[in-house]
Amino acid sequence: MKFLMALLVTLVVFSANISAQTTAFTYQGKLTDGGSPPTGQYDFKFKLFDLVSSGTQIGADVLSDDLQVTGGVFTVNLDFGASPFTSGASRDDESFPKDLSR
Known about the structure:
- By secondary structure, this protein is an alpha+beta fold.
- The chain has one domain (24-99).
- It has one helix and five strands, in the order αβββββ.
């Protein structure tokens, strides 16, 4: 009986973790400005494409304002939703930063 109770508790805990997953993910990139790694705040626009070149944009732009860039490195949470990734095909992204100090 204790074994069955432990098994039931384990299943409930794992099923709660599975349902808590989202489509968001962490993206880390490296930015250069004039060949140098900048430090400062930037506004970014991220786009997702179905091919590396001459691809079609999938979904809407994802905007991230006042993103801190340190030594050229930035980290951001992105969420393009579930539909772009359901086919299993590879995807390509582009980012468009805007330096806020200029």
